[in-house]
Design a protein that fits this description.
By secondary structure, the chain is mainly β. The protein starts with a strand and ends in a 12-residue tail after the last strand. It has a five-stranded mixed barrel with strand order 1-2-3-5-4. The protein contains one helix and five strands; from the N terminus they run βββαββ. A hairpin with a 4-residue loop joins β1 and β2.
């Protein structure tokens, strides 16, 4: 099995969609994650991963996945029918600093 863990920065905002199956619906979010490599090495170009996350918590966390936040994503690499690769995330961890207590989310 191909497992991957990436720590990177979100590029843009997450897109929330609903996967419809015969008897149920499941939320899915999609976003781009930029990995700039090891901080002690100078990579030629950052690597941009297309990430999909389809768990029940996807709808709840979608508004927290915003531009320039740092995330750790653990999952596996899959291929679309057109041959493009993406990361199907099993776990998402917010690695940035916690907001101040007086911060409100609207």
């Amino acid at each position: 099995m191909n497992n991957i863990t990436i720590i990177g920065t979100i590029q843009g905002a997450a897109t929330l969609s609903i996967l419809k199956k015969e008897t149920s619906e499941k939320p899915m979010i999609n976003f781009k994650l930029v990995d700039k490599g090891d901080p002690y090495q100078r990579p030629k170009e950052p690597v941009i991963f297309d990430v999909y996350f389809s768990k029940d918590s996807a709808a709840h966390i979608s508004h927290y996945i915003t531009n320039n936040k740092e995330l750790a994503v653990s999952g596996c690499i899959q291929k679309k029918k057109n041959g493009e690769e993406y990361v199907y995330a099993e776990k998402i961890l917010f690695t940035g600093k916690a907001p101040k207590k007086d911060t409100e989310y609207v």
